[in-house]
């Protein structure tokens, strides 16, 4: 039996806010489907050069009040990054809370505007621990 990965879907409450967040991570919109009859939009976003591994943002035009305020039922998305400190600083500079700072130079967690947990992992070996990250406390949960 052949199996091909297609995408991971997450529902979003505020499409523009969610897309802006994923763009901060470096994802680009690869395709979009708007259903007038179904009153929803599907936006696929992926890292450049990895269009075959997208995340699908599902947005219901009339709202989606059944979404929990804390999406812990969904594990997390994980992305490898070339410099975890630079990525975390970039996100923080744009108002994203670093829930689990990269104290070890290897791993960090942030949350999307819809409370989807995003794991950031340093590509290759961990970077040397450095401030302010090494002594930064965790915030909330991830």
Give a verbal description of the structure.
This protein has 142 residues and is α/β, with parallel strands linked by helices. Helices cover 14% and strands 32% of the residues. It contains two helices and eight strands, in the order βαββββαβββ. The protein has helices at 15-24, 84-93; strands at residues 8-12, 28-35, 40-46, 55-60, 77-81, 98-100, 107-111, 117-122. The strands form two sheets. A four-stranded mixed beta sheet has the order 1-4-3-2, with helices on one face. β7 and β8 (117-122) form a beta hairpin. The longest helix is centred in the first third of the chain and has 10 residues, at 15-24.
Strand order of the largest sheet: 1-4-3-2
User: Strand share of the residues?
Assistant: 25-35%
What is the overall shape? globular
Q: How would you sum up the major sheet? A: 4 strands, mixed
| Low-pLDDT sequence parts | none
What is the string of helix and strand elements? EHEEEEHEEE
Class of secondary structure makeup: alpha/beta
Number of alpha- plus pi-helical segments: 2
Based on CA atoms alone, the radius of gyration comes out at 16 Å
Average pLDDT works out at: 91
Short précis:
By secondary structure, the chain is an alpha/beta fold.
Question: Which characteristics define this entry?
Answer:
single chain; 142 residues; 4-stranded mixed β-sheet; 2 helices; 32% strand; globular
Secondary structure layout plus pairing:
Elements (H helix, E strand, L loop, with lengths): L7 E5 L2 H10 L3 E8 L4 E7 L8 E6 L16 E5 L2 H10 L4 E3 L6 E5 L5 E6 L20
């Amino acid at each position: 039996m052949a199996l091909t990965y297609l995408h991971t879907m997450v529902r979003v409450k505020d499409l523009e806010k969610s897309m802006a967040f994923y763009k901060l991570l470096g994802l680009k919109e690869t395709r979009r489907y708007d259903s007038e009859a179904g009153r929803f939009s599907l936006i696929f976003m992926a890292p450049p050069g990895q269009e075959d591994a997208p995340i699908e943002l599902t947005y219901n035009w009339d709202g989606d009040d059944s979404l929990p305020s804390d999406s812990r039922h969904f594990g997390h998305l994980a992305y490898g990054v070339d410099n975890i400190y630079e990525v975390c600083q970039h996100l923080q500079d744009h108002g994203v809370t670093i829930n689990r700072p990269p104290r070890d130079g290897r791993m960090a967690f942030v949350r999307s505007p819809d409370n989807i947990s995003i794991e950031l992992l340093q590509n290759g070996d961990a970077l040397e621990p450095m401030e302010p990250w090494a002594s930064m406390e965790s915030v909330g949960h991830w």
